[in-house]
Amino acid sequence: MPKVSEDHLAARRSEILDGARRCFAEYGYDGATVRRLEETTGLSRGAIFHHFKDKDGLFLALAHEDAMRMADVAANQGLVQVMRDMLAQPDQFNWLGTRLEIARRLRTDPEFARGWSQRSAELTEATIKRLERQKSAGRLRDDLPTDVLVGYLDLVLDGLIARIASGHAGENLSAVLDLVEESVRRRD
């Protein structure tokens, strides 16, 4: 029997994650049954769970992938730019449902919370490094510790995600982000 190439396995894994993202976004974690995952991905449970231990492993892999994408944008362009991109190109942010599900599970599932705290460190680290670079360049306020700025931006991000998810994305949110950006800039 011929071996399956690493490229084929990576492509299949990516295909599963893309379908699972849609399924979790539409039905939530609990509603994303194995049958729905099969329907959304177009693959059998055997094909899905060949790549992932179980549904929880699939969700964690998906959440980790999405956090890595967000960390990359935050590291290069800043967390406020991530939020601006969410408003300008909502179709590019199909992971918002995943983020909401993560928030729910962090409140209700202690085991998930322990595993997620390890995986979410990349976004926090990327944000901290970006803020430190901006502070060193004299662009950001230096009267507040970086962890306070990170907490503030995370709070705004969570609020923005909740607004978008509730269908209120067009209510002057761009102007609100202008205000957020201005509030963290250095005052001369």
Automatic annotation (TrEMBL):
<dbReference type="InterPro" id="IPR050109">
    <property type="entry name" value="HTH-type_TetR-like_transc_reg"/>
</dbReference>
<dbReference type="InterPro" id="IPR036271">
    <property type="entry name" value="Tet_transcr_reg_TetR-rel_C_sf"/>
</dbReference>
<dbReference type="InterPro" id="IPR009057">
    <property type="entry name" value="Homeodomain-like_sf"/>
</dbReference>
<feature type="DNA-binding region" description="H-T-H motif">
    <location>
        <begin position="33"/>
        <end position="52"/>
    </location>
</feature>
<protein>
    <submittedName>
        <fullName>TetR/AcrR family transcriptional regulator</fullName>
    </submittedName>
</protein>
<dbReference type="Pfam" id="PF00440">
    <property type="entry name" value="TetR_N"/>
</dbReference>
<feature type="domain" description="HTH tetR-type">
    <location>
        <begin position="10"/>
        <end position="70"/>
    </location>
</feature>
<keyword id="KW-0238">DNA-binding</keyword>
<dbReference type="InterPro" id="IPR023772">
    <property type="entry name" value="DNA-bd_HTH_TetR-type_CS"/>
</dbReference>
<dbReference type="InterPro" id="IPR001647">
    <property type="entry name" value="HTH_TetR"/>
</dbReference>
